[in-house]
Amino acid sequence: MTLLDEILDEMWIIPHFDVHSHFGLREGEVKGLEGFLANWSQPETPPQGMSQEGLAEWRRSRWPMKRSTWFSRSFQVALRRLYGRDDTRGLLAEMNRIRSMTIEEAVDWMCERSGVERIVVDSNPKLAVRCERVLSTYRLDARSLTLEPEGLWEIVGRVEGEVKEMRLKGSVSCFKVPVAYLRTLRFEGVEEEEAERISDLPPRKRKAEEQRMLEDFVYRYFFRKAGEWDMPVEIHTGFGWAIHRRPLRLWEADPENLLPVLEDESFRSTRFVLFHGGYPFTSKAAYLAASFSNVYLDFTCLSPESWSLLKRCLHEWIDVVPMDRIVTGSDGSYEWVFFASMFNRQCLAEVLAEKIETEFMDRALATQVGRRILRENAAELFLG
To answer: How far apart are CA 97 and CA 82, in angstroms?
Structure first.
């Protein structure tokens, strides 16, 4: 048995704690494997004038040219290993058998098969109450909140009440902030009086700058509350699939935009999780996690994006970021849980084995690093 085999065996012994999942709703029947994979591959901008109705068929037509991508190759390997079938008909039958289960049954089956202990799902507090494995986010969308026909403190008070009640029930464990799909991640300080003035204006009468200031106030208010309530704040950074709505502007999703918050001492008790390692700004994200003791680096979605990319990032991050501040997850549903669990372990094992072989890391430390990244850091973040 090679060193890599031994390290990989050790990684599979460690229960995975998935910090970013969308495994919360039942899915319909999977009718074709190529269509399923084409739908999940990184979307491209469609031809000019294409209707929404024709989009799915166009994506499928692109599949022959995307078979060379890492996602297209690796997901099929993961499906075969997960279900123990090589034939397309058998794979589809197994995929649909799991989808015929209740969502609670499907979560338990997939987590057991994937070696996953817990998953943090997106905005599904009811499932978190029903299913012991599941924790839920509270999606914090300041734009939607501030467009409600309520005053600033009525809005803030309502959200505070909801979060406190959900926490008592054990149904939410962290905030999730997907704001990078809508605007910049730069949250500037705004005086309370100014935020109240803007809130009193009808939404249609606010200037764009005023609306952004009001959102900044709300976000920063709840970032502080998150520190008081010991709730992590998960923030989308870097690339994203928003081509068919408002295109995601990478400069706005650059994690460097978070510096006004991270440098403010009043947020030091708030723990921030930077999703996707900020890709393509992965070195910047590593610098932030290495410099700020309340910043955690997440590499969810990098294993399906590119094996080479993730290996390069892990080599760099393990070198510069303390081992107690790296976490990961799946960012998907059903088979995504296994995909991430399998390839995150595989890639991490390869990186650790290579570091041992250079004699700059011993075996005991490598195992500790793997355990912290796959489970312990997330367990400390979400379970205390």
So the answer is: 13
pLDDT for 248 equals: 74
* Pairwise CA distance, residues 200 & 219, whole Å: 18
**Tens digits of per-residue pLDDT, 169-215?**
999 999 999 999 999 999 999 999 999 999 999 999 999 999 999 99
* Whole-angstrom distance, CA of residue 297 vs CA of residue 258: 14
Give me the residue label for tokens 């008592």: 168
Q: What is the pTM of this model?
A: 0.95
The DSSP secondary structure of 270-298, one letter per residue, reads: S-EEEGGGGTT-HHHHHHHHHH-TTEEEE
CA distance 174 to 138: 6
| β pairing state of 134-139 and 116-121 | parallel
Instruction: Give the whole-angstrom CA distance, residue 139 versus residue 1.
Output: 46
Sequence-distant (6+) residues with CB within 8 A of 221 are: 156
Return the pLDDT at 149.
84
Domain boundaries, the chain: 3-26+103-383, 32-38+56-101
Q: How far is CA 294 from CA 177, 269, 322, in A?
A: 16, 7, 11
pLDDT tens, position by position, 116-146: 999 999 999 999 999 999 999 999 999 999 9
- Look at the alpha carbons of 370, 173, 78, 286 in this order and tell me if their dihedral is positive or negative: negative
Nearest to 23 by CA among 332, 249, 366: 332
The reported pLDDT for the residue numbered 6 is 97
Q: Find the distance separating the first CA and the last CA of the chain, reported in whole Å.
A: 37
Q: Answer yes or no: is pLDDT of 242 > 70.
A: no
Cα separation, 24 vs 16, whole angstroms: 18
* The CATH number of domain 3-26+103-383 is 3.20.20.140: yes
